[in-house]
Specification:
By secondary structure, the protein is α+β, with helices and mostly antiparallel strands. The chain is built from 4 helices and 5 strands. The structure holds zinc ion.
């Protein structure tokens, strides 16, 4: 019996992201993403808030099954461009023996952004590779449709690259 499965290794979450990306490519529109949850000043844990924002952007509550996310401060990247004191957050979604890793930082417009962390093609260090703003972006990434995404602005300036890495910008 011929198999219709192109990528049998994808987890249900990844498969749903790929399906959403193909739907966006076909129709030109993505499913709406609600407004980001607010940080409750004084009573809210910042890492828990960052995790809630990622859940919202990826519409994980509509996925139909609980999705575990492990969130902790990042050891390498600052929270703000050029910052020194506050650390970025790294969010890990376990996925069938692998993991999807996201780096949460603020961009120049002070907007919380999520980058998928992957190995640098040159120095093999884990660096922010692709900005993921919605579930469809994640699907494009998994489909290797990177031309549609354009790469993360934080890829070149990541201090996680090896010192001599040619991808490292000044
Ligand atoms: Zn590198």
């Amino acid at each position: 019996m011929p198999s219709t499965t192109i990528t049998p290794a994808l987890s249900p979450l990844e498969l749903a992201a790929v399906t959403a990306a193909m739907s966006r490519a076909r129709t030109g529109t993505a499913a709406p993403v609600g407004p980001d949850p607010h940080l409750q000043r004084g009573s809210d844990d910042v890492l828990a808030w960052v995790e809630r924002v990622l859940r919202c952007r990826l519409r994980l509550s509509s996925f139909g099954r609980p999705t575990a996310i492990h969130t902790e401060p990042d050891r390498v990247h600052p929270l703000l461009p050029g910052g020194q004191y506050y650390r970025a957050a790294v969010l890990t979604i376990p996925c069938q023996g692998r993991a999807l890793n996201f780096l949460a930082t603020y961009d120049e417009r002070r907007r919380l952004v999520f980058d998928l962390v992957d190995r640098c093609p040159h120095c093999r260090q884990p660096v922010p590779t692709e900005e993921i703003n919605c579930f469809e972006d994640l699907g494009d990434y998994l489909l290797q449709a990177r031309d549609a995404l354009g790469g993360s602005p934080r890829f070149r300036r990541s201090s996680a690259h090896e010192t001599a890495c040619p991808a490292r910008g000044n």
